[in-house]
């Protein structure tokens, strides 16, 4: 039977031509079109997505290899797929419609999202093919409710969890939608006014942004946003259950030297010192991560000054030199003390008063590496 005489599955038809896809490509909005059809649309001067009418911040056309593969399977099987396939597809199409429909309330969107979250992991790749990831990003960062109603808060909390579930399977480039000023502002507002759960998820997203070369420019933009940096540092200073995510976000942002200086200007040293000073045994691995970030930024004179001026600054670093049953962080602490003590009598005096000599002697008697012991010996002589 010819394809023209067959009923083509809705998922396999281009929304513009209504014909079977021959070269499916996906826009930044998550909508998929046949390449020739969308190219004609764009060539005509249109700067929006034909289905959603959303302005295209990025006109790139990304080949949808997964959809092309499904269509190829469908053709090879004589236009037949396993009966369970469309049993799966139809509910997903309905869920996507409920999420994207302007008439759906946040409660209705939340109910649809909960059904998506209840699906097994095996369905995730299909959800990615259908454009759920860019759709969720659009809903979370382009539909901020000024009143922060409870239904809205619940939807955004679950939306962010779902985004984090899909991001490892999709393209991190889709996060570049945050480069638009209004979307980045929404990100900041959610951080400022959102729940602890929202802030934790947003910290994880910052970490993912910093991990990819495809989103490197966005990472720089975040580093220039003083409000956002301040909020991440505040999360760390609170020493709450989400401080771990804050420490990881800061560590990720520090991949760029320009971000490190901006973080120092926003009070990074005070935030990390507060975290280390208040950290409990269960969080010591994160204290070591915080200590490594202090060492990393101490090439800056402003960072050294902030550490020395903080009442607990040198004390916190001395505390990290030697901890019973915990070697991690010792080398960073010794290196940090070397950096601040070499050019500051005040820092050396604070290190001695804080028990630095005793800590270094204990470290030398421990099972730490030879390199750390060598540095500790050098520091002892300096003090």
TrEMBL record:
InterPro entries the UniProt entry points to: ARM-like, ARM-type_fold, ARM_PUB, PUB22/23/24-like, RING-Ubox_PUB, Ubox_domain, Znf_RING/FYVE/PHD
Enzyme class: transferase
Keywords: Transferase, Ubl conjugation pathway
Gene Ontology MF: a single term: ubiquitin protein ligase activity
Gene3D superfamilies reported for this sequence: Leucine-rich Repeat Variant, Zinc/RING finger domain, C3HC4 (zinc finger)
CDD domains per the UniProt record, alphabetical: RING-Ubox_PUB
Catalytic activity: S-ubiquitinyl-[E2 ubiquitin-conjugating enzyme]-L-cysteine + [acceptor protein]-L-lysine = [E2 ubiquitin-conjugating enzyme]-L-cysteine + N(6)-ubiquitinyl-[acceptor protein]-L-lysine
Signal peptide range in chain numbering: none
GO biological process, one term: protein ubiquitination
EC number, as in UniProt: 2.3.2.27
Domain (U-box): residue spans on this chain: 7-81
Associated pathway: Protein modification; protein ubiquitination
Keyword Transferase among UniProt keywords: yes
A Pfam family it matches: ARM_PUB
SMART domains according to UniProt: Ubox
Function in brief: Functions as an E3 ubiquitin ligase.
Protein name: U-box domain-containing protein
């Amino acid at each position: 039977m010819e394809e023209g005489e067959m009923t083509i599955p809705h998922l396999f038809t281009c929304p513009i031509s209504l014909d079977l896809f021959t070269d499916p490509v996906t826009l930044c909005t998550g909508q998929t079109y046949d390449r020739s059809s969308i190219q004609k649309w764009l060539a005509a001067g249109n700067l929006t997505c034909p289905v959603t009418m959303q302005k295209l911040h990025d006109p790139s056309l990304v080949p949808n290899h997964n959809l092309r593969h499904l269509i190829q399977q469908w053709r090879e099987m004589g236009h037949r797929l396993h009966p369970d396939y469309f049993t799966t597809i139809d509910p997903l199409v309905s869920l996507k419609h409920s999420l994207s429909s302007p008439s759906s309330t946040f409660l209705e969107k939340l109910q649809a999202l909960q059904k998506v979250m209840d699906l097994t992991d095996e369905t995730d790749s299909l959800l990615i093919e259908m454009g759920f990831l860019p759709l969720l990003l659009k809903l979370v960062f382009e539909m901020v409710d000024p009143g922060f109603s409870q239904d809205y808060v619940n939807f955004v909390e679950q939306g962010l969890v779902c985004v984090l579930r899909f991001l490892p399977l999709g393209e991190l480039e889709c996060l570049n939608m945050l480069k638009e000023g209004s979307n980045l502002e929404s990100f900041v507002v959610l951080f400022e006014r959102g729940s602890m759960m929202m802030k934790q998820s947003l910290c994880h997203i910052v970490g993912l942004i910093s991990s990819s070369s495809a989103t490197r420019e966005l990472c720089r933009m975040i580093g220039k946003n003083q409000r956002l940096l301040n909020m991440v540092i505040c999360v760390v200073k609170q020493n709450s259950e989400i401080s771990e995510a804050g420490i990881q976000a800061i560590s990720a942002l520090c991949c760029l030297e320009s971000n490190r200086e901006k973080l120092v200007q926003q009070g990074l040293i005070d935030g990390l010192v507060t975290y280390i000073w208040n950290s409990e045994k269960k969080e010591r691995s994160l204290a070591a991560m915080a200590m490594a970030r202090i060492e990393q930024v101490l090439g800056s004179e402003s960072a050294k000054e902030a550490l020395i001026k903080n009442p607990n600054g040198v004390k916190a670093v001395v505390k990290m030199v030697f901890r019973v049953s915990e070697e991690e962080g010792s080398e960073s602490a010794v290196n940090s003390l070397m950096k601040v003590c070499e050019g500051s009598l005040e820092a050396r005096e604070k290190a001695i008063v804080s028990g630095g000599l005793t800590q270094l002697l204990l470290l030398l008697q421990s099972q730490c590496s030879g390199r750390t012991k060598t540095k500790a010996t050098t520091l002892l002589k300096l003090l």
